[in-house]
Structure formats: structure tokens, C-alpha cells
Amino acid sequence: MRRTAPLPPPESVADPVLLRRLRIALIRGDYNREITHSLEEKCIEGLEEAGLDRDQIACYSVPGCFEIPILAQRLAAQKRYDILIALGAVIRGGTLHFELVAQECARGIMEVSLKYDIPIIFEVLATYNRRDALRRAGNNRSNKGFEAAQSALAMIAALNRVKR
Predict the structure, then answer these.
(1) Distance from first CA to last CA of the chain, Å, rounded?
(2) What CATH number is attached to the domain comprising 140?
(3) Within its chain, how far is the Cα of 67 from the centroid?
(4) 97 among known catalytic residues
């Protein structure tokens, strides 16, 4: 079954004051660079299309997906960002390494998110082959980076409705 990119709820982009104040950090794993750069480009495109300026988006890179959680933790501890977006690609090879990297990256991201009370959009692709990863990082609105931007805005809106 083919899934299309979800549309953000109208309230996620309706508040221009909220949008102007947002600070978003993207963390990209550099391994499988062709794929991860495409995710990052489409994510930025989606955020800008929603009304954010480029200077509201900070981009960071790490060698691979396994390293994303430690940088996420450092950025979350600084409390400079409203939301983090993790982008990466782990492609199955001939060993268990694929499963270890993908699972530990996801676990680490969740721990950081809960510890620092910051939403982290997890768009680290875990695919069985390069072809599937390339398809998910294509030059279209089904690109998972674009979907990550939409999810980030929807999450900000949801949290904004629930005051501390």
C-alpha cells in the first residue's frame, strides 16, 4: 500500500507569531549521503514553505545514524531549539549491524526527547535495500524529509495547545 504525505493540520501553520519564534535544529547522519542530503533539502523546503525563514533552521551533521542521539542530547540540553528533527538512512547489509544501528538510534532519540521534554521528529530511514531508501528520499512530496517538516509543525501546534 502506498502512503501519501500527510497534510499538516491547519492550526499547525495558522499562527504566524508562533512560526516567527520557532527555532528548529536538523541533525543529519552523513552515511548514505545522497539519501540523507535529499531528506535534509526536502525538510528545509517543507519548513520554508510553511513560513519559516532559513535562519530559523540550524543544520548539523554527524558521521552516521548511531551518532545522532548524542548530538540531539547536547542540543536539547542547550534549550535553544523548540524541536529537533533527526534525518538519516540505515540500509540493511549482510550482518546484524543494520538492526543494531537503527534500534539504538531510535532508542537514544526517544530517551533524549523524554529526558529534555523536547519533541524530536525521527525520520531515520531503515530499509532493506538502497532502492527503497532512494524512493523514500525522492524529489517529491513523499520524501520523508518533507514529511518530517510537516510532522514537526504539527507537533509544535499540538504541544502549543497543551500548556505546561
Answers:
(1) 39
(2) 3.40.50.960
(3) 14
(4) yes
Which candidate in 23, 79, 97, 107 is catalytic?
97
- The Cα–Cα gap between 112 and 97 comes to 22
Q: How far apart are CA 33 and CA 30, in angstroms?
A: 5
Tell me whether residue 164 is in a domain.
no
For 35-86, the pLDDT digits (tens) are: 999 999 999 999 999 999 999 999 999 999 999 999 999 999 999 999 999 9
Residue pair 145/3 in contact (Cβ under 8 Å)? The answer is no
Does any domain span residue 6?
Answer: no
CA 2, 145, 151, 126 torsion-angle sign: positive
pTM: 0.91
